Amino acid sequence: MTPGNGPDSAPEVTPEPGQGTLMTSATTEDRVKTPASQSLPKDKLVDMLYQMMLIRRFEERTMQAYQQAHIGGFCHIYIGQEATAVGTVAALLDDDPIITAYRDHGHALARGMHPNYCMAEMYGKITGCAKGKGGSMHMFDKAHHMYGGHAIVGGQCPLGVGLAFATQYEKKNNVTVCFFGDGAINQGAFHEAMNLAAIWNLPIIFVVENNGYSMGTAIQRGTAAANDLGAKAKAYGMRYAECDGMDVLDTYNTFKREGDLSRGSTSSALGLEQSGGGPCFINAKTYRYQGHSMSDPQKYRSKDEVSEKKEKDCISTMVSHLIDNKLATQDQIDELDKKAKQVSRDAIKYAEQSPDLPKSEMFTDIYSQPYGPPFVKGALPKMITDNNSGD
Amino acid sequence: MQTIQYREAIREAMQEEMRLDDRVFLMGEEVAQYNGAYKISQGMLDEFGPRRVVDSPISETGFSGLGVGAAMYGLRPIIEFMSWSFCLVAADQIINNAPKMLYMSGGQFGCPAVFRGNNGAGGQLGSTHSWCVESMFASVPGLKLAIPSTPRDAKGLLKTAIRDDDPVFNLESERMLGLGARGDKDFSRYIKDTWAPPTNKQDEDFTIPFGVADIKKPGKDVTIVAAGRPVHFALDAAEELEKEGIDCEVIDPRTYRPLDIDTIVKSVRKTNYCVVVDQSWPFASVGSEIAAQVYEHAMDDLDNKVIRVNNDDIPAPYNRTLEQEMLPNTRKIVEAVRAVTYNA
């Protein structure tokens, strides 16, 4: 853990002059002149800041709980990338499906999962979002249309295509957002998913949360033409956009624009009237401050690089924006941070106090239509036991 | 009863369920415009249109994963693999994502999808195209695995599979698709009422429950357990052994997961002898599992060891003679039954 970034350290939300200018990074030529976020009500902007603060504080607590061995397995921290999940989700409808990889706590919280259930899941408690059966890498929340964190790199891309296929099949006015890391773009599953989405004009946005490293491998070492990811989209005849994934407003604007183009797309290849802009590939350029997982010594990158990236921190940038535009005061912002810390502390408390996953849950949720006793070695089928009793 | 082919029975099952439920769709390579690489889905594009009968590119990871995602959303996909041999490139989707989703999501997202296609050696296709996947997949909790051997079972089990809320692997066989066809040398066998499925008019609720074995031929001297194509090898063997005075009971589990061990054990308790036939390789096979369970449940009722008849432990050869020899064929079953009942 980076010194000074602990759960009880001072919030890094002091506004810095000169920050907060929106990146103009989208490559589409017809980019709208007025960013969508300018029409956002103050409350929504403040809420976006709060969501990012909550994820940051929650993740600090997650790291602490992991180090105290309350959380097991692999645990991937979202700190640094908060703007990507928050900006994206803010641009969606409540019932737009989202699906992501294993660095999924941020997406779950941004989508509306209660922090208590998220933390309890990592503690392996019955009160967790998946009853403690999924863990850190498998955050599912049906009520909030969060179709999971998925732990095999790239494996969720075809699932995202399935969600988009389903909304098109049901003639719904939705767009699916499928998140993955830059490591996934070297997987076959990603390319097959892109191809299917393109041939069937599916309403889906593929988002690479490009933090520059697939575990310890810099993107240039693993991905051909890494400085031109737009070529991947072009190969499938798909729209491409870039956003500053560390700027929540730029992320919002990009997803609002592209999401509206993709939303409700239909395909004549599937017997419907061709409509909508179809799929889009968005490169959200971001950076993770922590290691790949909690067990990563981070020898592949310099401390200077990390500090440099932290200078354009997504929370600081948003704070500047709100204060510069007189949309919030420093006092209000301090209050928000206090609240985020409290909610995160409460989540820990909730998780700690929740009952453990009982053994009786071991054999549930394997089948939705169970077909008899679980397969236990030595256990006899009923018929045999009955016959034996007379022997 | 209708004397339809195995392929027609599969088609009927899909058509009937698609007429009942708009959420059901068929996706796979060449299923629509080509009318099915094996003509299973012939005419379905005309009836249901391109929204529900969808030609996918050769992209198994993509379209099987699409099926899982669509099923999570609430649709009921039927994903056709031209051959189960081709599903191996989609392993992550079908054995990681499909069967574990319900558990990993704490019961929130199931996967009511059917994956189906040809399983086992075709006609001299070489080793990569000759996979029998039952032994590889039957050990995975969360999925169900059906392996029909007759047109009746093919229709009844597939209808159950489509209605099931869990992922079902339906293992068909290229060599059986023509079963029941006019001109088939064994046609007489398939016009028996018990082997032909009813039409929708005759029985609109016809389904066959999973986990219920079928006694394909009753007998008193020895139990032969076989599913899928080897059922026919076993029946041929039983015919031959009858001439030697050995009365075989042929039990077809029809689904390996769930497995109706009760019916198998009941039969073994009656005959006291057991031969298990299965078309996959012998090591850690479904046949080995059944043999183990027979020992666990009926050790004291056995008058001899259980003998397994498997595919030989080799990659499938192209050469026709060798390919036939590799299978758990009639000759091997006859020899196994003779060996196991020698002390009767």
SSE blueprint and pairings:
The complex is a heterodimer of chains A (391) and B (344).
Chain A: H1 42-67, H2 82-90, E1 98-100, H3 105-111, H4 115-122, E2 146-149, H5 156-169, E3 176-181, H6 188-199, E4 204-210, E5 213-214, E6 217-218, H7 219-222, H8 230-235, E7 239-244, H9 248-262, E8 280-285, H10 303-310, H11 314-324, H12 330-353, H13 382-389
Parallel strand pairs in A: 1-2, 1-3, 3-4, 4-8, 7-8
Antiparallel strand pairs in A: 5-6
Helix pairs in contact in A: 1-2, 1-3, 1-11, 1-12, 2-3, 2-9, 4-12, 5-6
Chain B: H1 6-20, E1 24-28, H2 44-48, E2 53-55, H3 60-73, E3 76-83, H4 91-104, E4 114-118, H5 134-137, E5 144-146, H6 151-163, E6 168-172, H7 187-190, E7 214-217, E8 222-225, H8 230-242, E9 248-252, E10 255-257, H9 261-271, E11 274-278, H10 286-298, E12 307-310, H11 320-326, H12 330-340
Parallel strand pairs in B: 1-2, 1-3, 3-4, 4-6, 5-6, 8-9, 8-11, 11-12
Antiparallel strand pairs in B: 5-10, 7-9
